[in-house]
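Re-run requested by the PI after the first attempt was lost when the workstation crashed. Everything re-entered from the original request form. Ligand of interest: GLP.
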Amino acid sequence: MKFESTPNYDELSRRAARIIARMLIRKPDSVLGLPTGQTPTKMYRYLTQFGQQGLVPFQSVVTFNLDEYYPIQPDDPKSFHYYMQKHLIQKISITTDQVHVPEGTATNEEALQRRCKQYEQAIHDHNGIDLQVLGIGENGHIGFNEPGSDFDSETRPVELSDHTIDANFEDRANPPRRAITMGLKTIMHADRILLLASGKRKATAIANCIGGEVSKDNPASILQLHPSVTILADTEAASQVRA
Ligand code: GLP
């Protein structure tokens, strides 16, 4: 595990965007696993800038998002479809067939399970993910793999914890209580992983991810078993990591 602390959020975002840019310049048809949330927003801003300056080729990239709420429509501003449109897709030259986000629109459990299996299969069909970018929840979740998730889990429907709902929705009126997420096994199969964390509220999760016991109670701890992980944390998020 490689751990790097950056002086601030801006540096973290620029550094993360550069890692992705380098990957795309070297291998333009890379398969990227992408996160949502507040943490990566500035990384997407830098990446967009690099694209607009013609520095990064997006024509052949394929992307798979980590997760999506369920049930949700793609045009709902709370959805991760909407987030990706707003922060990346509308701003770079990329077509919709290059972009994959789990569909939160299934109308029954059977269709939901089927779509999850198809999503996992689509990742395999693209020969897996070259670079998986992750954020981290305060309780150590990655994607929506909450504490207790199986280490051999694949893309599946999950229940969200109250903690995650509180962290993700200021407005608690009718938040989605379920989601679709890549599993821990799906994430671990990526060739390379880049995890980003910013701010004091992530400090415990980062310390436990790096130095805590590898356990289902702390999903991010599984990354200790991956051969190629880089963790980028700003000073606040890095503040509890022991030298
Ligand atoms: C959500 C997402 C995660 C993300 C986490 C942290 O629950 N499912 O993939 O890493 O939130 O988000 P933020 O960056 O907003 O703190």
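Saved to the shared folder this time. The beta strands are 2-6, 31-34, 62-65, 67-70, 99-100, 131-134, 156-159, 178-181, 192-197, 229-234.
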